[in-house]
Recover the amino acids of this structure.
């Protein structure tokens, strides 16, 4: 597991810019692998790149005129071979940073990174980046570097064990909560107290529920939700839910929003604090009950 959020590599002549960038990264709450990582005349940066990238979730390389200059004596053959190996195996996550270098020159000198997005740092006439510009760039880096994608086939019990259950997720939400599908019913029926306390903390909550007044939606829902055998079961159960939803919308008009969807989704979503390092997204796939995977007849 990575020890750091980002690794920062730079040319020694850009120590002032790199140092200011590092301070902004740390101020944003990111952990930075930065031992000076200074590239000196004639240095091979391969070992430092390997060490830093192996320890970090994301790699930042600051491309400047000094970094790209052939007079510095960089062993680009080593660097390019290493990057090629890492990129081919999807083992390296890179966000190049470009300052003071034109797009055409950057692409010519770093052909391996042509298809990879880079972020430009605007410099003033003195060749420096303003505090506001560094703050903007760090926000971009933070949005990228703190994004974690975890794809697993897990059951509800495994999910609750890993993230503390629905109550724990509600308590830990700081800014925004969005839910759709059957999570709407579960949240309102069983966790309305937790929802109210989250709203009291200023959490913005948006919920989308299956419309109990839509015959098409209800008919589809009872096919994918094993809790309901008849359409009337779901319709009756939604009466209490509607009352609570209406009360929340009246009490918290600026924070709470709910809508009905005229179709029953085959995917249920639960998203908390999108954009924050603590973001969590749960996705549930629903299939008609009983689940009938494709049966292939090999006898014919």
């Amino acid at each position: 597991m990575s020890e750091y959020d980002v690794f920062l590599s730079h040319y020694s002549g850009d120590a002032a810019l790199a140092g200011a960038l590092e301070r902004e990264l740390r101020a944003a709450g990111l952990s930075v692998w930065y031992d000076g990582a200074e590239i000196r005349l004639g240095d091979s940066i391969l070992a430092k790149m390997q060490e830093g990238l192996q320890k970090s979730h994301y790699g930042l390389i600051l491309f400047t005129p000094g970094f790209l200059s052939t007079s510095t004596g960089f062993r680009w053959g080593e660097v390019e071979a290493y990057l090629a190996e890492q990129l081919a195996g999807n083992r390296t996550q890179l966000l190049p940073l470009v300052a003071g270098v034109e797009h055409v020159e950057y692409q010519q000198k770093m052909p391996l990174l042509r298809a990879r997005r880079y972020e430009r740092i605007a410099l003033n006439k003195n060749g420096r980046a303003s505090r506001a510009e560094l703050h903007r760039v760090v926000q971009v880096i933070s949005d990228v570097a703190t994004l974690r994608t975890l794809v697993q086939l897990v059951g509800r019990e495994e999910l609750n064990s890993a993230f503390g259950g629905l109550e724990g997720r509600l308590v830990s939400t700081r800014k925004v909560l969005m839910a759709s599908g059957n999570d709407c019913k579960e949240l309102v029926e069983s966790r309305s107290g937790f929802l109210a306390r989250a709203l009291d903390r200023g959490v913005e909550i948006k919920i989308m529920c299956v419309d109990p007044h839509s015959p098409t939606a209800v008919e589809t829902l009872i096919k994918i939700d094993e809790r309901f055998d008849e359409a009337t079961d779901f319709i009756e159960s939604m009466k209490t839910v509607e009352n609570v939803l209406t009360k929340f919308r009246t009490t918290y008009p600026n924070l709470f929003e709910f809508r009905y969807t005229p179709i029953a989704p085959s995917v249920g979503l639960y998203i908390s604090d999108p954009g924050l390092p603590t973001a969590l997204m749960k996705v549930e796939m629903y299939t008609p009950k009983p689940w009938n995977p494709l049966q292939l007849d090999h006898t014919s």
